[in-house]
Amino acid sequence: MIEALFFYVFSTVLVLSAMMVISAKNPVHAVLYLILSFFNAAGLFVMLGAELIAMILVIVYVGAVAVLFLFVVMMLDIDFTRLRDEAQKHAMVGAITGGVLLGELAWVYSQWMGARDALARAAQTAPQATKGLTNAHALGQLLYTHYAYLFQVSGLILLVAMIGAITLTLRSRPGVRKQVISHQLDRNPADVVKIEKIETGAGVS
Amino acid sequence: MAELWTMYGMPLAIIVGKILLIVGPLLGAMAYLTYAERKVMAAMQMRQGPMVVGPFGLLQPLADGLKLLGKETIIPSGANKFVFVLAPMLTFALSLVAWAVIPVNAGWVLADINVGILYLFAISSLGVYGILMAGWASNSRYAFLGGLRSAAQMVSYEVSIGLVIVTVLLATGSLNLTEIVMAERPLWVTALLFPMFVIFVISALAETNRAPFDLPEGESELVGGYNVEYSSMTFALFFLGEYMNMILMAAMTTILFLGGWRVPFDIAFLEFVPGFVWFAAKVAFVLFIFLWSRATLPRYRYDQLMRLGWKVFLPFSLLWVLVVAGALIYGGGLPPATVEVIHVIP
Predict the structure, then answer these.
(1) Which residues of B touch A71 (CB under 8 A)?
(2) Domain-embedded: residue A162
């Protein structure tokens, strides 16, 4: 009973906040609603017994990705009236795109074919499915034992993306004065500071 | 009705009781951490610190709290009211919920979940939101700059904290905090982990926005940083949240590196002292390092802070993950592998 109650609370808040993400007027509020929906998704994962996935979701998406979103959105200087006019201009295109996507989803769902024992597994929570191993052990075995090469390949793909992002944004700027810490530390007071005894009435030459 | 009580009422009452048992001492510890900070810094600067309220100024935290309660909460007219009020509450609540998984003695833990360390990492990485939201909602330049600095700083140092946690996990083989504390490490593994302990403590200073990394509230250039517009209880919640986060980070250090509630160096005749006393003593030791560095070190410049995080700590901790993993494999220090193997359906 309690489980069902929590499930409905999490999923209701998840769906409502996901709707608020796209309908909130203020983009900062939209990102905050996005974070709320991440949290509720994490709650649903915990209820499934997939606590590792829930924690990864919170660490990666809420702790890192959404921070960057919020960071960028807060820096934007947004004119709300213009934003609303623009949104109304594109309302038709948006509605058509959304409608097509919804139709496709409905079609895929009507043609749904499960794998052999998928339905039986869908009813299990994660600890049952992994025979009592903890989430971390089970996922670790899958990723690092059974699919080690695929895991390496996905790492290489991310490396390519990272190098691409760096080369796109790296440009050499002439005339920039860089600080070299070792040079700064190497400076010796005896070389750069001169102490002079100044006679009264006389200046320093 | 009786069934409802035994099934839901009793467990709920027990959990609420446990929560009160955790939060009560925690709030007391936090209040006296502010006192300890003033006293320790005073001693290091040859002053006396608070001496007026009560004997040796011992009632000073209470007086401060009462004074803050009596002030007026001011919400700036240009502020986003909802987010403005939400931010301090979020900061304070997040600093409390993390304690649900901290074991202060063998079995003395509210939720003994098997992803405890990830939960702690997740909660501590959420602390940035309170500061970012406060900086944005205040509609003030100083507060906004403070919030941005803080966000960049906390995200940068989280990376090295994550890698430090990975090395400890390599040596213990469990994500459960109790098992991390109970794991037996050979001496050479402890020695290998020592550099990570240093990195963790320094990153914890940066993560909690403490000196020498207290740029988000660098008063010389930002007045008071992200909390400039806050007054009364809303300010108090930020202030208390910061101290609570310090205690939390000290507790994480204790659990990961100092052996939690276990007797130091396994000295047999000290066994009569209960575990939670050792835990508190170790946390107090780490907190003393926090206060000590505040009294000793000047504030970092912003570019120096970023350089330290990304160009020194990140490469070093990445390298050290490899070194520790290699050493554990060749030295036989790896935790025993789980025997059960999942078979994948092709």
Answers:
(1) 132, 148, 151-152
(2) yes
Q: Are residues A98 and A17 in the same domain?
A: yes
The Cα of A193 is separated from the nearest Cα of chain B by a number of Å equal to: 23
What's the CA gap between B231 and A186, in Å, rounded? 46
The two three-digit tokens of residue A118, written as one number: 């998928």
Residues of the domain holding A156: 130-170
Q: Is the ipTM of this complex over 0.85?
A: no
Q: Helical H runs in B173-186? A: 177-182
> Per the structure, how many domains does chain A have?
2
Q: From the candidates B115, B131, B155, B301, which should be mutated to test the interface with A, based on the most A CB atoms within 10 A?
A: B115
Q: What are the sequence ranges of the domains in chain B?
A: 1-70, 78-331
Closest residue in A to B122 (Cα–Cα)? A59
Element (H, E) at A80: helix A80-89
Residue B124's pLDDT is what? 85
Q: Are A20 and A121 members of one domain?
A: yes
> Is residue A70 domain-shared with residue A137, that is, in the same domain?
no
Statement: residue A10 has pLDDT above 50: yes
CATH of the domain at A56: 1.20.120.1200
Report the greatest alpha carbon distance in chain A: 101
Residue of B nearest to A64 (CA): B155
Same domain, A32 and A103: yes
**Structural domain contains residue A183:** no
Q: Are residues A159 and A67 in the same domain?
A: no
> H helices of B258-334, where?
275-296, 302-307, 314-331
Nearest CA to B30 out of B214, B255, B240 is that of B240
Q: Please, which pLDDT band fits residue A82 given cuts at 50, 70 and 90?
A: confident
Note whether residue A136 is domain-resident. Answer: yes
Nearest-Cα residue of chain A relative to residue B304: A181
Q: Within a domain: residue A198?
A: no
Distance from CA of B55 to the nearest CA of A (A): 44
Question: CA A90 to CA A100: how far, in whole Å?
Answer: 16
**In this structure, are A106 and A45 located in the same domain?**
yes
pLDDT digits (tens, 9 = 90+) for A139-172: 888 888 888 899 999 999 999 999 999 999 888 8
The shortest C-alpha distance from B49 to chain A (Å) reads: 36
Of A56, A148, A42, A146, nearest to B175 by C-alpha is A56
